[in-house]
Amino acid sequence: ALDAPKGDSGAVWHDEADNQLPHVPTRPLEQKHAVNYIVETIMASEPGTITLVPTGPLTNIAMAVRMEPRIVERVKEVVLMGGGYHVGNWSAVAEFNIKVDPEAAHIVFNEKWPLTMVGLDLTHQALCTPAAQKRIEEVGTPLATFVSGLMDFFRKTYQDNQDFVDPPVHDPCTVAYLIDPTCVETRRCPLDVEIHSELTLGMTVADLRGPEPSAEECHTQVATKLDFDKFWNLVTDAIERIG
Fold first, then answer.
1. How far apart are the first and last CA of the chain?
2. Half-sphere exposure of residue 197, counting CA atoms within 13 Å on the CB side?
3. Where are the transmembrane segments (predicted)?
4. Residue 105 maps to which CATH number?
5. 164 pLDDT exceeds 80?
6. Phi, psi at residue 206, to the nearest 5°?
């Protein structure tokens, strides 16, 4: 499904875009509330087999933790798109997904499951350059044509609103990291979310001072560096496989 663009895109979807969507299989909406679905799915699965990959605000996951705290010890890891340890987009220091519900993010970040924050510091390296876009176009499928059109749209939007030459892509970075962890470098460090200050509400604070702590000492880490070629290889391959 396509959601409304993220806060830093400044984009507005137009009705005519619906006519350009490639044909995709459809499925009925899940009748269960998302929070119940998360809890029931995790509790019914073998411990360590479920990875949560949120690419939006963390409200449902925080509610699931409050409803059933035992899910924390059963989840393998949380890999989320959100935050940023040097930059924000919805404010000077806060990224959209975190700023929308900072209290929920504070809950999720402070639970003791392994958590990787794939924030703007990483996703702003995932730029769809003309060369990367050409590779997508060369796949030659309706989906590839559609994705290339989206990149044209976002390129203009980012140039007009964010002073980017080429548009970054955000959410695919989380999945790319899970498919091939070697395409993303990470740094283990304490992470928290500001929930009290009016000026910095929603800021994700990464303590990068001193030596890197061990996994036993620290359960959170941030994504720091993207292997650009590996990332776009994964994206192009996925578009080709989907057909």
1. 17
2. 12
3. none
4. 3.90.245.10
5. yes
6. -110, 125
Question: Tokens 């830093």 — which residue?
Answer: 8
Two tokens at 111? 């639970």
Q: Give the residue numbers spanning the domain of 196.
A: 31-125+170-223
Q: Does residue 22 lie within any of the structural domains?
A: no
Alpha helices of 85-137 — where are they, by DSSP H? 96-100, 102-110, 120-123, 130-137
Question: Is residue 111, in this structure, part of any structural domain at all?
Answer: yes
> Residue 203: which of 56, 90, 108, 114 has the closest Cα?
90
CA distance 195 to 121: 21
* Residue that the structure tokens 């119940």 belong to: 36
Model confidence at 10, pLDDT cuts 50, 70, 90, reads very low
Is residue 100 situated within a structural domain? yes
Average pLDDT value for residue range 22-39: 84
- For residue 200, the 8-state DSSP code is T
Dist CA 223 CA 165 (whole Å): 23
How far apart CA 215 and CA 226 sit, in angstroms, is: 21
Instruction: Provide the token pair at 181.
Output: 């962890």
Would you state the structure tokens that stand for residue 66, as one six-digit string? 């409050």
- Tokens 């057909």 label which residue? 243
Of the candidates 95, 60, 62, the one whose C-alpha atom is nearest the C-alpha of residue 81 is 95
Q: Which residues are catalytic?
A: 170
The tokens of 241 are what?
A: 């496989």
